[in-house]
Amino acid sequence: MNAAELPECPVCLQAYDGGECTPRVLACGHSACEVCLAHLPKPFPHTLRCPACTQLVHYPHPQGPSALPKNIDLLRLSSLLQPKANPNFNKTTNPTTKIPKKTQDFMPNLWSHELYSVWKNWVLPKNAVSVESYVKGGDYGCVYGRTVNLDDSLSNSLQLHVRSLIKGNQEVSLVKVGCFDESDGELDYGYVAKVMLTLCGMRDGERDELGLVLRASLRQRRLCKVYGLWYDEGCLYLVCERHDCGFLKMLDDWENGFFPGDKELSGVVMIGMEICEGVVGLHSEGLIAGVLPLTCFELDDLGRVYISFNEMLVMGGRLCRIMAEAVSVKWKIDAEESEVSFKDDLLKNQTFVSPELLFEVLQKEGIELGPNCVRYAVGYGSDVWQLACVLISLLVGKPFIEETDRYVFSLILSATCEKGTGYIDLYEGWLEKITNLLETRLGSEFVTVKEYLCKCLDFEPGKRPRVIDVWKCMRELIIKPKLDIMDALEQVVVKENAGHCLVLGELYHSLKETNKATQRQMIGSSLEEKDASGRMDTGQPGDLRVNRNLAEGLSKGRMKCIDLKGHRDCITGLAVGGDYLLGSSFDKAVHVWSLQDFTHVHSFSGHEHKVMALVFVDEEQPLCISGDNGGGICIWSIGTPFGQEPIKRLYEEKDWRYSGIHALTVSDTGYFYTGSGDKSVKAWSIKDYTLSCTMTGHKSVVSALAVCNGILYSGSWDGTVRLWCLSDHSPLTVLGEDTPGNVTSILSLAADRHALVVAHENGCLEIWGHDVLPNSTLAHQGAIFSVSMEGKWLFTGGWDKTVIVQELSGDDSDIDSTLVGSIACDSVITALLSWQGKLIVGLADRCIKVQYIFVLIFICFLEMSNERIWTIDTKLCSCICII
User: Fold this and answer.
1) Domain locations in the chain?
2) With contact defined as beta carbons under 8 Å apart, do 318 and 295 qualify?
3) What single-letter DSSP state applies at residue 643?
4) Cβ distance 441 to 457 under 8 Å?
5) Count of C-beta atoms within a 10 Å radius of residue 618
6) What are the tens digits of pLDDT across the range 828-874?
7) What CATH superfamily is the domain 113-241?
8) If you placed Cys at 607, which of 95, 210, 591, 628 could pair as Cys (CB 3.0 to 4.6 Å)?
9) What is the CB neighbour count within 10 angstroms for residue 267?
10) What are residue 420's phi and psi, to 5 degrees?
């Protein structure tokens, strides 16, 4: 027998010996070496999962694996086969065990896990910004506001380096980058869900550009910081820091610009250099601004210049509109009136546009250029042209802007005429006028600056200097070249035409679509009245035709749920088994409905007290087990014909101090379990209905039970959750026993995969995962009476008459919950059950509601897509037909 057949540890595959690789026996009977047991993850305090059978077993603390018994038989066998350990095996220092995950597709993914993981840290809290005013600008505008004082709990949701930047009471500017239709409906999406759905509705290119802007703002010092994304009243905003002082407030003599005398020269040069540094920062991130209006340059309290992304985005959108209107109105009104309107718009916005960018914008807006119009690619040289215009406007003032506006308007008319000629002559004439203005302002003392600025205005982008060269030219006015050590340093080099132009990108398209969508929401009610005729959508031959009323009703979340009536008191439990839905109530009865058409089938009336819980047992003979608050247990046969009497009645030992059964669950090991008012958990045999075991340890009523992965979880009014091994019903550990603060009763439990959800009387929800403290949130305003978990979807309901829908994400060691939305109900929610795309809600007003949550979320999500293509398969249609 060779060494490979020696007994070995299932984790590190090292042959057992009497030293470090000593086999220790776990409670399940399997063995692993002592070192590996010390490094295995501990899902819950004082427990670990067996690497062989994945069963959760007790782990001695604080002694560790040395307190477990040695497997003497394995050691003896190993010594007989080979006295020495095989040296070819290497010990794994940090062993891990991969446990297969259970996946369920209860509902479609509203967004991908990758999308959520990338963008979740950029979502600002709902109350992070206070809106102050809205500045209109045609179809585009900025919202101005302030940040509020963020406490630690809110700041934890921000990205680490963003959190260090944002503080309370800071001025911010906001620009719309997306919209979400908040039509009234059954499902009220949560704040984060609205942000994610808005991002899902954006094109990939739009999201990519948004990511470029966010990352660039954090890495470059001359760019205003972008704090993240904020949602309010149907719109998603990009939140950017704002400095109230800009160029327009700084210029006391705006009409004539600055005169670069001895006193003013250093100030103009410093401002120009900082502007160049901001543009270099953009280029180093692969971004081309396209437009650099004077309003996008802001000054902080120390007079330093920053470039605002929001102003760039807004002005870029306005530029596209101005260019399109300039051509569209020239055929309708007098050319002089058109020119006056055009110049007023550009003058008001202080926007400059290079010739090659102008032609691209006109082409993008669907305006045909003349056949002889020569076009150049938009690249980093386009920003050099804009930069020169900004610097000249500081030196010359309003005369330069007027001349430039007149030239741009003439260039548009010349480039869009039938021949498309004469624009070169226009350019040369304009450049001659600008040269004369510079000579008048600068004189002969600053010839180098004048020549460099004129070279930046060259019609051909390839002949323009780099931004860094403009920066060096201005620096030489202050520091002589012989003393300038910057020449010896490596300069930033970017590849021409390799950048991404924001004006020509898809983010501007998003801004345009956002404003159109906002207008559609304002007139949405009138459109609904026009479509009330119920006509079929004609579409194209072969396309699927969908009833328009049905589609619009579903897309707005206005779904009619099914009301199941029959009980005469508060609903206490729900269960699904076979083809039936079972419900229990304080009226001492168990009712049965068909899952095919939700018609009432039968009523079981055998309890003498209020029925508190029920469970379905999927055996050869399907059973329903129900328990009442008097300690009575009734076992019913599920199948036609239904009997009037239970096939078996069981009774707990009565104790006048405590009240009956409060919880029920069943396992696949042949037992069902009851949680009782006498503070115990009892295991009953399904085979012969005898009491097999009584588990004690809780200090109050056992109010909730759950079974998952070989573990029985019991929750109690004492605020703790106890874990029991299903194989021998031995105790494993206690959760919440060391939790500081006041004890709050546990009312409901849900367990799936390796996540445990605990609902408390005070509205707090705890989600337990591996090796982490519970993720605790205040989910409801009042007691949480019921929890249901299906795969990654979590539903909770209680005293506040609201069903909260959350999505669980992450791995077993780091579980994160995202509020998807909420569903308002008419009464207190006392029972929840999720099943095959349907959410079944039991209420205190005796009613059971069946919500088609799958269709509701799926159609709402389709409505967010840009193409708005309806795809309905046969399964979906069958669900719709039942409504």
Assistant:
1) 3-81, 113-241, 245-504, 562-882
2) no
3) P
4) no
5) 11
6) 999 999 888 788 999 999 999 987 765 444 444 444 443 333 333 33
7) Phosphorylase Kinase; domain 1 (3.30.200.20)
8) 628
9) 13
10) 70, 35
Q: Write out the two tokens for 301.
A: 């309290």
Mean pLDDT for 550-559 is: 39
Query: CB-based contacts of 434: which residues, under 8 Å, 6+ apart?
Result: 392, 400, 403, 404, 454, 457
- Give per-residue burial for 236-245: e unless 16+ CB within 10 Å, then b: bbbbbbbbee
CATH classification code of 3-81: 3.30.40.10
Mean pLDDT score across all residues of the chain: 75
Helix (H, G, I), strand (E, B) or coil at 551: helix
CATH number for the segment(s) 245-504: 1.10.510.10
Tell me the C-alpha distance between 175 and 518, whole Å.
13
Q: Which residues of 452-474 are buried (b: 16+ CB within 10 A; e: fewer)?
A: bbbbbbbbebeebbbbbbbbbbb
Lowest mean pLDDT segment, chosen from 140-144, 408-412, 717-721? 140-144
State pLDDT tens for residues 704-761.
999 988 899 999 999 999 999 998 899 988 988 776 666 789 999 999 876 889 999 9
Predicted confidence at residue 745, as pLDDT, reads 93
Residues ≥6 apart with Cβ < 8 Å to 261: none
Residues 614 and 635: beta-carbon distance below 8 Å: no
Beta pairing, strands 611-617 & 297-299:
unpaired
| Cα separation, 368 vs 418, whole angstroms | 9
Can you read off the two tokens belonging to residue 33? 């070496």
The full DSSP string for 5-65 is GS-B-TTT-PBP-SSSS-EEE-TTS-EEEHHHHHHS--SSTTEEE-TTT--EEE--TTTGG
In the chain, pLDDT over 90 holds for what percent of residues?
A: 20
- Confidence tier at 573 by pLDDT (50, 70, 90): very high
The helix-helix angle for 398-415 and 380-396 (nearest 10°) equals 140
- Strand bridging mode 500-501 / 287-288: parallel
Calpha distance 229→239 (Å, rounded): 6
Q: Supply φ then ψ for residue 876, to 5 degrees.
A: -65, -40
Task: Answer whether residue 103 shows pLDDT above 60.
Answer: no
For helices 506-522 and 309-328, angle between their N-to-C axes, nearest 10 degrees? 80
Q: How far is CA 702 from CA 615, 696, 741, 842, in A?
A: 16, 10, 21, 21
- Beta bridge partner(s), residue 231: 236
The answer to whether the Cα torsion of 397, 403, 404, 409 is positive or negative is positive
SS3 649: strand
- Among the residue ranges 85-89, 525-529, 855-859, the one predicted with the least confidence is 525-529
Q: How many CA atoms lie within 13 A of 324 on its CB side?
A: 12
* Assessment of whether the complete model's pTM goes beyond 0.90: no
CA distances from 597 to 457, 790, 848, 882 (A): 75, 23, 14, 7
Q: Write out the two tokens for 126.
A: 């709902």
Q: For position 349, what pLDDT does the model report?
A: 55
Task: Give the type of residue at 301.
Answer: D
Q: Which fold has domain 562-882?
A: Methylamine Dehydrogenase; Chain H (2.130.10)
The CA R_g of the chain, rounded to the nearest whole Å, is 36
What residue type is assigned to position 650 of the chain? L
Provide the 3-class DSSP secondary structure of residue 749: strand
Q: Find out whether the peptide bond into 461 is cis, omega within 30 degrees of 0.
A: no
Each residue's pLDDT tens digit, 655-690: 767 779 999 999 988 999 999 999 999 999 999 999
Q: Closest Cα to residue 233, out of 284, 303, 182?
A: 182
CA distance 314 to 142: 7
8 Å CB contact between 696 and 655: no
